[in-house]
Task: structure prediction
Amino acid sequence: MKKQRLSERYDDFARIECPEICIVSGSLTDISESGFKAEFNAPCEVDTEREYMVLLRLSRISTEPLELTVQPVWQKVTDGKTSIGFSILHSKDSVRLDQYIKMRKDDKSSADSNGIITFDTESLFI
Result:
């Protein structure tokens, strides 16, 4: 499915906070310039016609979380867990997101050329 997308998705990890969707934080599994996939360990209901504001705490950067306006595209509930695909709309932190995606592209290019991925280990969280 990743191959059919307009923009390349990068496997990643981030904590997602959106109390309007779920009182428990979710986790991001992949991200691109235009969207991301999130997993919540609880059943959630979203309205695909509505916009939500989410905070994305990326594991690879130690700055403030990204504040993004998103719209759910799909959702799947399995065994009490919810997967949701989000489209990213123009947001307060769109520029920071673009910079982050560029960093991921550069990391991938670097890994493709020499097999080593570099990133700031001080910014990782548990």
